[in-house]
Amino acid sequence: MRDLEVRGTRAQVDALVDHMTQAAKAPWARSAEGEANIGDDSYRVFSREADGSLPALGVALHLEPEGIQIVNIVPRDVGNLSTGVYNAALQEFLEQLVQPAAAALSLSVVTSLPRTSLAAEVGPEIARLLVQFSGAANQSSGSSHPADFKRWAAFLVAVHRRGKRLDTDLLYATLREQEWPKEKASELVSEFEFARELLSIADDVH
Questions:
Q1: Do 176 and 185 contact (CB within 8 A), yes or no?
Q2: 3-state helix, strand, coil in the chain (%, to 5)
Q3: In this model, does residue 113 exceed pLDDT 70?
Q4: Out of the domains of life, which is the source (predicted)?
Q5: Rounded Cα distance, 3 and 71, in Å
Q6: Taking burial as the number of CB atoms within 10 A of a residue's CB, which of 133, 183, 202, 204 is the most buried?
Q7: For the chain, which residues make up each domain, given as ranges?
Q8: In CATH, what class is 4-111?
């Protein structure tokens, strides 16, 4: 799971949080309740309401000597978040709240973005299968159309046969680069995680 940190003095961080609080709009908001539940003045909490792309969740940030960093993203209505959903929530929080505020205050944002390409991880032929799927798919329906599902399944099976675990953060970033909307990219990552576990179980059965 990815990390995120904004570096600055305490005064700068306070200004950053104030900017984020004022700029937050649905489904995001500052959560006074979340901060009261933690009961520690060194934490700041933002909440997100559920919609078609992400579940209801809270983002906890901790004040550090040289900045502020995300320490957890916690679901409110489900047991836990998959890596793909966690990273999708972090990416949205980064894009909608953190980056605009940090840019306005000239603060440095540090995030653990993928440092490699999908082709480097699983090979150019498998990467090409994902490009074929993304290029032909109806991005409003994801993998639900039979022809799109066939191309998506070819990618899933090829990754499984490659025998190397593909990082879901890298897959999400690659899908976003291929112009998938955030919510659809998150859905596809969840489908990938399910298929990975299913295929592994099928191998064990046989």
A1: yes
A2: 55, 15, 30
A3: no
A4: Bacteria
A5: 8
A6: 133
A7: 4-111, 118-205
A8: alpha beta
